[in-house]
Write a sequence for this structure.
């Protein structure tokens, strides 16, 4: 019998981004420098912390306002905050000279490139994206 942990998932996964037309996003004209985002998966402490932060923000909002309704701006802000917290790195992505968490959040908040945040959120929602690759024996 094998240890059940053999089914454990990887801590991170890399998303190779697609543009709004579902074509590979590249930082160069030759198509060699793919735009990528590495994210922490649902089995990690970083993901659990981001989820707790999301839940705490919702509870604080309910306590402060006494209502559950949010403006589109508040929804976008909370989504960007969560995605920022589960993002490990960007590759070949620039935005206003920003770096690290500030870069992540700015990209996720920009509605004109909202398809990026959509791709990341979708990727995070599928545990299979963090499956360990099989290694030959």
């Amino acid at each position: 019998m094998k240890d059940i942990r053999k089914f454990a998932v990887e801590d991170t996964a890399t998303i190779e981004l697609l543009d709004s037309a579902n074509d590979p996003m590249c930082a160069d004209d030759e198509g060699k420098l793919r735009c990528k985002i590495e994210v922490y998966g649902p089995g990690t402490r970083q993901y659990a912390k981001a989820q707790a932060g999301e839940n705490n923000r919702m509870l604080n909002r309910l306590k402060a306002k006494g209502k559950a309704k949010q403006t589109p701006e508040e929804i976008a802000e909370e989504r960007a905050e969560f995605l920022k917290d589960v993002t490990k790195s960007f590759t070949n992505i620039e935005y206003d000279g920003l770096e690290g968490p500030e870069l992540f959040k700015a990209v996720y908040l920009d509605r004109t490139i909202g398809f990026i945040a959509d791709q990341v959120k979708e990727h995070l929602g599928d545990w299979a994206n963090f499956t360990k690759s099989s290694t030959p024996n």
Summary: DSSP finds four helices and three strands in the chain. The CA atoms of residues 22 and 115 lie 10 Å apart. The radius of gyration is 17 Å. The mean pLDDT is 91.
